[in-house]
Amino acid sequence: MDNNINLNMVENGLNFISKSIETVDKPDEDLKYSLINLHAGIQLLLKELLYQEHWSLIFQVVDNSDKDKLKSGDFVSVNHDTLIKRLQKISGIEFDKDLINKIEWLRKERNKAEHYHFVVSADVLKSNIVELFTYLIPFIKSELIEPGYISSEDENFLEIQEYLNEFDEYVNGRLALLQESLNEVEVILQCPVCNQETVKFTDETDAYCYFCDKNIMNFSEKYIDSFVDTYSQVMDGGESLLYECPECEFETFLCLDGYQFVCLTCGAKPTQVNLTTCSGPRCNEKLIYSRYSEDGEYDVHFCDVCEDYFKHA
Ligand SMILES: [Zn+2]
Ligand SMILES: [Zn+2]
Ligand SMILES: [Zn+2]
Question: Could you tell me the residue ranges of all domains in the chain?
Answer without folding.
Answer: 9-181, 238-312
